[in-house]
Amino acid sequence: MTEPICDPPSDYARVAPREPPAPDPLAVAVGNASLLGAGYLILRRRALFWAAAVVTASLLWLTYRTAETWCELLVVLWWAAVVGHS
């Protein structure tokens, strides 16, 4: 009869899952500065991406339709808020 040489422990072949690296803050800020919400995608925040996309599209459409200064200021304030939030 042959005896087993050595049984490895039950967790021998398991590899700990890798955590994703922390996103670069500058890349997130630049992504959001584009008003496309790309910074939120880098942060893996899809709900914020879609919310930012809807608000940005609405503000740009409002500015296009009315072409008034207050709309342009609103777009600039939205841009600053999105960049600051990232």
Q: Would you kindly provide a brief summary of this structure?
A:
This protein has 86 residues and is an all-alpha fold. The protein has four helices and no strands.
Q: Care to describe what's here?
A:
The chain has 86 residues and is mainly alpha-helical. The mean pLDDT is 85. The protein has helices at residues 25-33, 38-42, 46-66, 69-85. The chain is built from 4 helices and no strands. Helix content is 60%, strand content 0%. Helix 1 (25-33) packs antiparallel against helix 4 and helix 3 runs antiparallel to helix 4.
**Individual helix count:** 4
Low-confidence stretches: none
In total, the number of strands is 0
How much helicity do the residues have?
Answer: 55-70%
Report the major sheet.
none
- Relative strand content: under 5%
Cα gyration radius (Å): 24 Å
N-to-C order of helices and strands: HHHH
User: What's the N-to-C terminus distance?
Assistant: 67 Å
Q: Which word captures the global form?
A: rod-shaped
Name the average pLDDT: 85
> Which structural category do the helix and sheet elements fall into?
mainly alpha
Give the tags.
86 residues, mainly alpha, 4 helices, rod-shaped
Topology (elements, then pairings):
Blueprint: H1 25-33, H2 38-42, H3 46-66, H4 69-85
Helix pairs in contact: 1-4, 3-4
